[in-house]
Design brief:
- By secondary structure, the protein is α+β, with helices and mostly antiparallel strands.
- The chain has one domain: Molybdopterin cofactor biosynthesis C (MoaC) domain (Alpha-Beta Plaits), CATH 3.30.70.640.
- The protein is built from four helices and five strands.
- The protein has a five-stranded antiparallel β-sheet.
- The N and C termini lie far apart (about 35 Å).
- Pathway: Cofactor biosynthesis; molybdopterin biosynthesis.
- Catalyzes the conversion of (8S)-3',8-cyclo-7,8-dihydroguanosine 5'-triphosphate to cyclic pyranopterin monophosphate (cPMP).
- It is an enzyme of class 4 (lyase).
Amino acid sequence: MSGLTHFDAAGQAAMVDVSAKAETARVARARARIVMRPETLALIQEGRAGKGDVLGVARVAGIMAAKRTHELIPLCHPLLISKVAVEFDLQPPDAIEVEAMVSLTGRTGVEMEALTAASIAALTIYDMVKAVDRGMRIEALRVVHKEGGKSGLFTEDKA
């Protein structure tokens, strides 16, 4: 088989060979939303969670996860990431939106790294306050922006 595919000539799963691709600046942003009881959001916002700084720990977890995506997702390339940022938008009365941004200059994109960072940050929030709110929901995990590489620019359509 030719082109970029996750199958080899025998039809078996294989890592894509990106060695012929040009190195370009690449950026991806992904978001996830975690919905909780209003009291749980207040607990996080006021820094009263029993396990400590929920958002600080979730930020570090997201950053660490982005750097280890190739160990978690089969056939992902190990990447020399230039930057990872994880931010939180508290949305009263009952939600937090997590946004992860990953960038590098390389031959393959960073969408999977951004998605991994956002999901692990949301999972960490869940883990740190699950004792007081087991009904939390993590939802709407998606890539919202991607630039660089052959496929060019993608921005989530809000319509």
